[in-house]
Every structure is written in C-alpha cells, then in structure tokens.
C-alpha cells in the first residue's frame, strides 16, 4: 500500500464539508464524502516546524527536539537564520518505510533545518522539490539572500528571482509546479510497480498568500480563497490521477494541516477556524484542531465521520502499520495506529497534549479540556509577544 499525506496551513473552518458557507472546496468535500472526515483531529504544535517534526517522527516536539527553552511557552521554528534542525537521533517515517521498499518524495516546504545535515535526502527521502523554508521575502541579497528552492541536492533557484511571486497581485505558479511534480512522481512509481510515500507540503495559504493566474479573483474569500480553490483543485487532480492509473485502492491518502489558520494574517491572508477560539500560535482549539480526511477507496467506507481524538503523529504509526512495519521500540512514540478507527469505526481512548515550546498548556481527555496556562497577561503583554513574529 502506498501512502500520500497532504499538509498545508488551513483552518478547520476552510472546508465546505465543515461548514464554510461559500463551499469553494468541492474536491475536498467529495474526498470527505468518499472517505472519513475527522472532526476532532489535532496538530502537535500551533506552528509549522514542530508540527512537521511530530508528523514525521510520531513524537511530541518536546521529545523530538523541536521546542524552545529560551522563553516561557514560546513556539520553536526554523527560519532561514536559525542553524538548527531535526536531530540525527530521530527516526523519520521515510527512513523506516525504506525498509519495506518504499520510494519517498517530499514536495514543498521541509522546514526542519536548512544546513546539509538536515537535508530531507539525509533523512529518508529519495526526492525533493521545494524549499527548506516558507516563501518569505523578497530580500536584499547583500544582507539576506532570497530563500532557495531545491531539486534533490541541487538548488533550482530562489523565491522571487527564479520562482516568481508577485506580492501586489498574489500571482505565482508554484502550486501548479508542485501539482505536476506529484502527478509525475505517482506515474513513475506506478510504472515501476513501486510502493511510495508522497509528502505534499505546499504553502500557498501561508502569508504572503499566492495563487496561479487562472485562480486569481475566482473566490468569494479574496486571495486566500483563491489559494484554497487552487489547492482543492490540485487535490482533486491527484486523487483522479490515482484512480485513472488504477492504484487508488492501493493508496492511502490523508489530508490535514500543520496548524490552525493564522488570524494575524486575516482577513485577506488568513483562513477560518470555524467555531473555534483563536488560531495559529495558540493552544486554543483554533490553533490546533485541524481539518482531516482519510481516503482509501474500497477500504474506507464512504461517508464516515469520526469523533476519534486524532493527531498528526498518528500518521506516522498508521503509515508504518499499512507498510507492515512496527514502530521503533527504543523510544517513546506518541502516535497511535488509526487503522481500527478508519476501517472498523472503533474509538480509541487517548489524550491530546497541547504544548507551546516546552510548556504543557492544556490536555484534552474525552469531551473535556483542561487549560493549565493561557494568554492571561494584559493585552499589552499579549501584543508584545505576538509582535515578536511567528516564533
């Protein structure tokens, strides 16, 4: 069984299937109708880097090294001027899947370190087309260069130079490039009868938001909605491609997000967290409860809705289970195997832990959530922390 994981910055309330009134995600809504929609699915951190580290290691950020101790409850991430990254001691999902003969590709944002020892191809991936960071910039290259985009080991160019993003109009064809990369990779693996793991980690909905020309101005939700519509269209094309190649019944696909919508970028550059409080960077529900859909025709009963407390870390354990592999026994794994939930409709009793940095902020068990620490400072203090950037 091959696996595909889609990860991008979208809010719980961005899908029509979850109540977004403009209903501009027909492909994702159809994916949910054909598969299983998770209503209580969480990321492991309200920020990009630690969430991605958690997904690929099956471990909480406080275990896998993606946390900070240099400020109370500060999130940790890896901008281009940070020299750290994913520790060598961590075992990533693609490294383990190699044991079962998988070919692994990451498309889009890596965000787990940009120095050579942190390169995705040193951590189990066979191919990469994307960037170590988000598409911030443009920068003055005399002080800070624009962020590179890689094809495997080689730099293919830089954002704003070789990969154009028009900040005035929001036009960029990056999502189309990432879509074509996915389609070509799937075709190649199908032709060689090779099981594969595809990690499609695009960043069009991350401010500064972008979309390609044919999607600009097509949404009722502005530029952010244009980006969502293009992502939705791309997901639809990937699923259709799997079906046309006759491998959809052998491919487990999961769609989710690395954190909630960034309300700091709203309304034009940020999404919706539906009924939930706050958003990205916070451990309220809006920051950590994510849209989540499992799709596997012929295996997952259509139209399923689950209240299982799920986590991005579960994708690690579930993918290993699909490949017939056991999780490593020499370390604590926080993800659980969701196959009994997805295939048999079971519910597994487990807690959800909400961390910022090395601080446990809240715990959810069943229908209850205990907050141990929240934004209880003055608005002046709150604004000061938020102004320090997305850290």
Question: How would you describe this structure to a colleague?
Answer:
Helices cover 25% and strands 19% of the residues. The protein contains 10 helices and 14 strands. Strands 1, 2, 3, 4, 5, 6, 7, 8, 9, 10 and 11 form an 11-stranded mixed β-sheet that branches. A 3-stranded antiparallel β-sheet has the order 12-13-14, with no helix packed on it. It has a single domain (2-388), classed as Alkaline Phosphatase, subunit A (3-Layer(aba) Sandwich), CATH 3.40.720.10. Strand 5 (148-151) and strand 6 (154-158) form a beta hairpin. With 391 residues, the chain is an alpha/beta fold. Helix 1 (26-34) crosses helix 6 (222-244) and helix 5 runs parallel beside helix 6 (222-244).
What is the fold's blueprint, element by element?
Elements: E1 2-7, H1 26-34, E2 36-42, H2 48-57, H3 61-64, H4 93-97, E3 103-109, E4 127-131, E5 148-151, E6 154-158, H5 174-191, E7 196-201, H6 222-244, E8 251-256, H7 285-288, E9 289-295, E10 304-306, E11 310-311, H8 314-322, H9 339-344, E12 352-356, E13 359-365, E14 368-371, H10 379-387
Helix pairs in contact: 1-6, 5-6
